[in-house]
Write a structure and sequence with these properties.
Blueprint lengths: L4 H11 L7 H20 L4 H13 L5 E2 L6 E2 L1 H14 L6 E2 L3 E2 L4 H12 L3 H21 L16 H13 L3 H14 L18 H17 L15 H6 L4 H5 L23 H13 L7 E8 L1 H6 L3 H4 L4 H4 L3 H11 L9 H4 L2 H7 L2 E5 L1 H6 L6 E7 L4 E6 L12 H12 L5 H12 L7 H5 L6
Parallel strand pairs: 5-6
Antiparallel strand pairs: 1-2, 3-4, 5-7, 7-8
Helix pairs in contact: 1-6, 1-8, 2-4, 2-20, 2-21, 3-4, 4-5, 4-9, 5-6, 5-7, 5-9, 6-7, 7-8, 7-9, 8-9, 12-16, 16-18, 20-21
Length: 458
Amino acid sequence: MATYVKDRLAELVHGIRYRDLPPEVVAAAKRVILDTLACAAGGLKSEPAAIVSGVARALGGSKEATTIGDGGKTSCALATLVNGTLIRYLDNNDYYFGHDSAHPSGNLAVALAVAEKCGRTGADMIVALVAAYEIQLRLCDVVAASGISGRGWHPGTDMQFSSAALAARLLSDDPRVTAHALALAGSHNNTLAQSQRGHIPMMKATAEATIAKGGVEAALLAAGGLTGPDEIFEGAAGWAATVAGEVDFTALTAPVGERYRILDTCLKPYAAVAGAMALIRAAVDLATRERLVMADIDRVVIKLHALAVKKASDPQKNYPRDKETADHSYHYCVAAALLDGACGPAQFTDERIAADDIRGLIAKTGLEADAELTALYPKSSGGGVAVKMRDGRELTRMYKYPPGHPQNPLSDAEIAGKFLELSDGMLEVSNAQRVIDGVAEFERCENIGELLSHMVAV
């Protein structure tokens, strides 16, 4: 009988088996894998990627796992850091909202690295990834209503547990290894949220990647026999009391029901902050209907749920100076989408960010809490845009469920299109298609490294 929370969580992780996964869960895992690899391809030529890859090469390490971009090999921990940074850079990877938010696709960096190190199959990796999503998304929901982010912790902190569980599940079939991996990771990898406040630094791209690297290292140590504190969650100085405030341990450790949590993640059609997906689509729709210019617009009202309005009251984000802050600015993303009819890489260049027409439209833009959207949150982070024209007309568009939400999902063709778009100029076209084809039958993959060998930058 499992005595401690860490042991019950470990039993949960090891109780998930491929033969028991419903077909829609396997399909969801493959959709997440392709979507996340698309994000990694799109980040290949970014400055954070160059910095982190350079440090990893300088450190060296056992040739255990492939680094995306150069096709080289390094330790599974360093490969997690490199690939995780690529995944996160564009801010185009999947998300989830509960009491805390999450970008659970950061777990894929762990899955790829440790599965390759251990010679695991695609089916093995799918099981471990599903378990990681289960742990991380549960943690978003079972903490105090203010979330760990309300207490000053980066929400990616939850990934210390999911990444450790994932790595341990691939390294060992022993639940005791996973239990101690959870305990070790939870002792060392709690991360501050200051990097998300005000002007956002480049390290945004490395936050989850660094946490996940720590999870891998915790699993390796646990597999080697190192033990962690039994009461890491429930102890007087444990994670619940010091980081989360409170945790519903019954809900956290309950058996998996009919719906696996990986089905609840949202995919992003745009490279921007998660809460902007509905807003950007609404603005693009309006711009498609009618060509808009700043001088003809009297004002713009962005409609959001009440918590988003409260959190978005940071004036430093209204007039961003760089991509990292611009893609986290509702004001900027909506203004760019209204004027350009798009919100892609061209809208996040230094020149476009500083453009007078966008900054002029931002000055006419305000936020407004919407009761219907507030009632739907956090099950949905919808939004809308109302454009008041100087000639008296009002153009409006609203999405209660943003594109990419389980209630408004991206199609398989859209995800493949996203991969081709983000890999354009980054990968050979033939290699991009090989990745798409390989992920389509990923459960039959026998060599993870071979799949990643097609993700070498041109």
